[in-house]
Design brief:
The complex is a heterotrimer of chains A (about 450), B (about 325) and C (about 280).
Chain A lengths: L1 H15 L36 E7 L8 H14 L3 E7 L2 H13 L6 E5 L2 H8 L7 H7 L5 H4 L3 E2 L2 E2 L2 E2 L1 E10 H6 L9 H13 L3 E3 L6 H16 L1 H8 L8 H15 L12 H9 L3 E7 L2 H7 L1 H4 L2 E4 L13 E6 L1 E5 L6 H21 L4 E2 L12 H11 L3 E3 L2 H4 L2 H15 L5 H11 L2
Parallel strand pairs in A: 1-2, 1-3, 8-9, 11-14
Antiparallel strand pairs in A: 3-12, 4-5, 6-12, 7-9, 7-10, 7-11, 7-13
Chain B lengths: L1 H35 L2 E2 L7 E2 L3 H7 L5 H31 L5 H13 L2 H11 L6 H8 L1 E2 L2 E2 H13 L21 H12 L1 H13 L3 H9 L4 H12 L1 H17 L2 H7 L8 H11 L3 H29 L1
Antiparallel strand pairs in B: 1-2, 3-4
Chain C lengths: L1 H38 L4 H7 L11 H8 L3 H31 L6 H9 L10 H10 L7 H24 L3 H9 L4 H12 L1 H16 L3 H6 L8 H6 L9 H32 L5
Helix pairs in contact in C: 3-13, 4-5, 4-7, 4-10, 7-10, 8-9, 10-13
Classes of the chains: A alpha/beta (about 450), B mainly alpha (about 325), C mainly alpha (about 280).
Amino acid sequence: MKMKKFASVLLAGAMVATMAGCTTTTDPDQPTTPGTTVTDPANPSTPAADGEVNLTMWCIATESDSNRHSYEAAIADVTAAHPEINFTWEAFENESYKTKIKAAVAADEMPDIFFTWSCAFLGDFVDAGRVYCLDDAYAKVKDELPESMMGNSTYNGKHYGVPLTMNIVGLFANMDLLKEVGYDEIPGTYDEFIACCDALKAANIIPFGCAGKETWCVTEYLESVIEKSVGYETLNDIFLARATWANPDVASAVDTFQSLVVNGYFDPAGDALTNDEVKANFMAGKYAFYMNGTWNCADFAANDEFFAKVKVGEFPVINADKATLGQLIGGPSDTLAVAQSSPNAAVAADFTFELGRLICKYGYLDGCGLPAWNVNYDDSAVNGLTQTVASICAQAKGYVLFGDTAMAAGDAQTYLEEVAMVYGCEVDGQTFVDDLASAIR
Amino acid sequence: MKKKITNGINVFLFLLPALVLFLVILIIPIGLSTYYSFQDWNGIGEMKFIGIENYKTVFSDKIGLGPAIKNSIILAALSTFIQLPISLGLALLLGKGIKGERVFLSVFFMPVLISTVVIGQLWLKIYYPEQGMLSILLSGIKFGSTSIEDLIVNWINNMNAKLPIPKPPYTSVPWLGNTYTALACCFIPVLWQYVGYHMLLLYAGVKSVPPELREAAKIDGASDGQINRYIVIPSIKSIIKICVIFAVTGSLKSFDLIYVLVAKPKVADVPSTVMYTQMFKANNYGTGSAIAVMLIVLCFAFALIIGAIFRKED
Amino acid sequence: MDTNESINRISTVSKVLIYVVLGIWTVINLFPIYWMFTFSLKGNDEIFGGNMMGLPKHWLWSNYSSAMKTGNMGLYFLNSAIVAVVSILIVLIASLMATFAITRLVWKGRNLMNKFFMLGLTIPIHSSLLPVFLILKKLKMLDSYQSLFIPYAAFSLAMGILICSGFMEDIPKDLDEAATIDGCGTWKTFFLVIVPLMKPAVSTIGIYTFLQCWNELMFANTFITSGRFRTLPVGIQALSGQHTTDWGPIGAALVIATFPTLLVYIFLSKRIQDSFIAGAVKG
C-alpha cells in the first residue's frame, strides 16, 4: 500500500518537472516528418484481411542485461494478447548497437521497432525523417503515460518515442564506513557532507570512488554539484543549448567540484580504473560514497552482504538560494521508436506502446529503474534501494537529463573532454565555461 | 599476335577474382569516403557540401590528429626496430633446427590466436594500479629505499606539479590513466602480441633457404652468425619486406587493443581512435572520413617508400 | 685440443643461455592461456581487485553453463568457422591467381597493378563500415554469410597478394620456362608448377585470413541481424549488459571460443611447419 502512494507521488513530482526539453534539437525548418495521418497507400497500416502482420524489433536487452527478464516477460504477454502479430526480436550489445543502429538508419534498413536513447540520439534520426510520429498512438494511452515523461522524445511538439524506465543519479553510501566516523545517516547538508568527507579522510577512508577512465562517471558527480549550485532550470537551459555556458555561477560550481578533487576526496588510483572496477571496489568496502546511476540498485540489492550496508540518497544542496532538494539528474532515456519505413507503422506504434508499458512494469519490479508509466499494480516487492529512489523522485522538483545524452553528439564529445580536463586539474571552472561557450554555439 | 591476345585474356582472367573483390569492397568505399570527406554530414541525415572545411579541421589542433599521427609513427618505428628483430631472431634460432623447434614455434604463435578481448582484459589487470602485476613487480625492485614504482610515481607527480591547479599526488602509478605512461603501456601488448606472427612468416622464409647452401657454408668454416648474415637474411629479403610493410601499415591503423586499454580520448590517441570518435561518437562523419582519407594516403606512401628502399638495396 | 674444449664450453654456455631465453619467452606466451582459464572460473569480485592473477578461490564452473545457456555458442562457433573457411578459400584462390598474373605473366602495367593492390593494406576498417553496408544493401546481401566472407576476403586480399608475391618471386623463372618448353600452357604451368611450390604461402595466408575474420566484431555486428548467422565475437559480446556485466561467463565463452582454435592449431601446426619445408625450392 505504501508503495502505491510512492508511485502516485512520484508521478506528481514528475509532472512538476519540465522535460519537454528536446524540442530544440530539431531544426525547425526541417519539414516535419509525415506520420500522424499520412500512411503509405501501398502499405495499409491496418492489418490485412488475413490479419497476419510481421513486426521485428532490435534492442539491447542481451541475455545477460539486467533488463532481459523484463523484455522477455513483456513480449510474452503482448504476443499472447496479439496472436495476429508475428513478432521477432534481436538483442545486441550496447556499445556496438550504437554503430549498428546509426548505420541502419543511414541506409534506411531499420526494423519496425528499435531501441534508442532519447533526446539527441533519437533527435538525429527524427531530423533525418526516419522515425514514425507516435501522436495518434499516444493519444490512446495518454491516461497511463504522463506527457512529462514524453518530453525527452518530443521534437517540435510531436512525439516520437515510447519511454521505458527512467534512472537518476544516486549518492550511494557504505554505511559501515560512515559509522566508523560517527555518521548514521547520509549527511543532509553540504557543510555536514564536507565535514563527513574530512572525517573519512582523517580515518584513512577514501570518500569517493570514480572511474577517471570513463568520463561519464565523472559527470555523475560534476552535474550533481552544478545542479545543486545553480538550480536545475539554468543547467537544463545550458544542456539544451538554450543558454550559454558562459555563466559565472556555473564556473564557480565547477570550481566547487574541483575543490573536492583537490582536497583529495577522490581515489587517485581511480584515474586508471574502469567503472566496473570502481564499482567492485565500492562493493568491497574501499570507498564510502559512489555517485552513479540508480540502475545499480538491482545489483547492490542482489548481493545480500552488501545490501545490508548500502544506502542511497540525494546530493545535498550547495547554494540554497538557487537550488533545492528534489532537483535531480536523470530522466527517461531508454526509449523504443518506430521506423518511418515500416510497412505496418501504425500497428507497430500501438504495439510499441503496449510493449513499452509492460517492459516498464517488469523492469521496475525487477529494480532496473523507475517507472515512466503510471503504476497501477502492486509494487511492494521492489527492492529497498529502488523504493528509496522512488521516494526521492516522488519529491522531485525538476530533472536535468545526463549531459552526454541531452547534448548533440558533437557537443557532448567536447563537453566530456572538458570535464576530463577539469577532473585532471588541467583547467579551472572559468576556462571550462569559456571553452564550452566558444565551442558550442 | 595471337599469342599476345591469349596472354591478354589470361592476364585478365587471372586478375578477375581479385579485381572484382577489390573494386566492390575496397575501392568504391574509398571513393565514398573521399566524397563524404567534403561534406558536412552527421552520418545519418542530409549532407551539405563544404569543400575542404573538414580537412581544415583535421589539420587544426582541435581534434588532436597531429599527436595521434606522431604516436602511430613511434609505434611503427618500435614495431620495425624492436618487434621485427625479436621475431627475426626467434625465426633464425628456430629455423636453424634446435631441439624442441616445433614446440617453441607453436607456443610462440599462440598469443596471436587469442582474442583481443582477452589480451585487453589481461593487460588491464597487469596495469591495475598498486595491486596489478607490474606495480607489484616494480615495487619489489629497490635501490636503497626507493623502488622503481616510487621513482615513476614521483616523476608523474613532479610533471603534474606544473598543472594550473594543484592535483593531489598519486600514491601508485595509474599506468593507463595518465598521458605520461599510457602510450607506452599500450604499445607493449600491441608489439608483444604480433611477435609470433612475424616470426612464423620469417620462419617460413628461413626454412625455404636450401639446406645445401647452409651446409656448404658450414664446410667453408662459416659461423652461425655469418651464415645468417650472408646467406639466410639476404635470401629472405622479400619476406622481411612484407613484414616491414605489414608492421608499419598495421601500426598506423592500430585500434582494437588501444581502444580497449585506454577508452578515453586525448590520453593515448592514434589516428584510428580519433577517426572512430569523430565518426561514431561525435557524429562528425565528414571529418572522420577526411581522417580516413589522410590515413589511406599516409599508409600508401609508407608502403611505397618501404618498397622503394628494399628495391634500392638490391 | 684446448681451444676446442673452450669452444665447446662457450657453445654449451650459449646453448644454455638460448634455452633460458626461449624458456622465459615460452612462459610469457603461455601465461595468457593460463590466465584466461582461471579468469573463466571466477566471479566479478575476484576478477576486479580481489584476486586478479591467482587461481580462483571459488571455482565457478557455473560460468560455463551460463555461457552455454545464453545464446547459442555452438551455432555461433559453426558460423564463425564457415565464414572463416570460405574467406580463406577466396583469398587463396584470388591472391594466387592475381600474383601469378603480376609476377609471371609479361604485360604492361603489372608493376602499377601490384601497387594498386597495395592500396588494400591502407584502408582503416572503421571508415569502410558505412560504405560497405550501403554496397551490401545494393547487392541485397545483408544478413547472410556472404555479407561477411566477401568483405573479410577483400580486406585480407592485399596481404595475401603481398605474401604470395614474396614467395613466388623466389621461385626460379627457369621452372616455368622449362614447363613451357614441355608444352604446358599458362594455366597448366600455374596449377602444376607454381601452386604446388606455394605451400608455405598457402599456410601463412590461411593463418593471416583466419586471424582477420575470427575475432572481427564490427562488421559482424552491423551486417548480421538474425541470430542464425551470428558469429562468435558478436555472441560473446552479447554476454555483457548495458550497465552491469558479469565477466566470468564472458571468460568462459572466450575459453570455449579459443581452446578449439588452439587445439586445431596444435594439431595442424606440424602440417603447417612441414609445408614450410616442403615449399623449399632447390635453387
